[in-house]
Design goal:
Layout lengths: L1 H9 L4 E6 L2 E5 L4 E5 L10 E3 L7 H12 L7 E3 L5 H4 L2 H7 L4 E3 L24 H5 L14 E3 L12 E5 L8 E5 L4 E3 L12 H6 L15 H12 L5 E3 L6 E2 H13 L1 H4 L9
Parallel strand pairs: 4-5, 5-6, 6-7, 10-11
Antiparallel strand pairs: 1-2, 2-3, 3-4, 8-9, 9-10, 11-12
Helix pairs in contact: 7-8
The chain binds zinc ion (2 copies).
One zinc ion (ZN) binds next to α3.
Length: 274
Amino acid sequence: MQENILQQITQKPMGYQQVIPDVVLLEFPLVNAFIVGNPKINNGEWVLIGAGMAHTAKDVIQAAEGRFGEGNQPKSIILTHGHFDHVGAIMELLSQWNVPVYAHELELPYLTGAMDYPPADPTVNEGLIAKISPTFPNKSINLGNRVQPLPADGSVPWMPGWRWIHTPGHSPGHVALYRESDKVLIAGDAFTTLKQDSAESVLTKKKEISGPPAYFTMDWEAAEKSVKALKDLNTQIAVSSHGLPMKGNELTEQLANLANNFASVAVPEHGKYV
Ligand SMILES: [Zn+2]
Ligand SMILES: [Zn+2]
């Protein structure tokens, strides 16, 4: 039964949906990535947020070319952090695209081969994804000089109107991206809109604002502060790297509940990093 669920998850083809006219969600079996850019505005310049799972470069390129035209490359790739499911296709993509990659300064050691993430902790809860998480790679990739720190002034290269917000906890250099003009948030893994530790939830994508994926979260105190800071933005539309987009009252109420009850809603009762 459980194996059956995992099979159903991993066999799902990549899907995509336009969240707002210039944000498209690319849906991989375990994670989302985002295309930010409107083909009709800014000469059709666009940015890729996150780099999906391994062997998905073709799908990403196909989706992007379908939207922006054949041979069209992004202006940059922004990484909210460097976990395996967020950088899976990046080497393949960079072999085809000559574009810079940006991440927070504190995440660079995990993107340049200098430091590995701690191994995933399967003891955080009973969820099936948590249980299989020790099979998830925790080794640093090495992007060498193709990755650069995000600008210190908070701007996001090639994403006018957006700023990056340091939201550590899940990882040291985790960032979320926010656009004040329409209160749109790309939360990365700072919070999720499903229960990522549970295979049922990953399969059905039932909307439920939850903490960061617990098996990989390194610092729960910092993670709580980050969620509170994101709640205070009064975001109207939020997308996370795990789950479906959420907006309006449902978003506001559930995000407030997570921020106000973080210890009971998100923090595992036990675990190596608690
Ligand atoms: Zn992560
Ligand atoms: Zn993730």
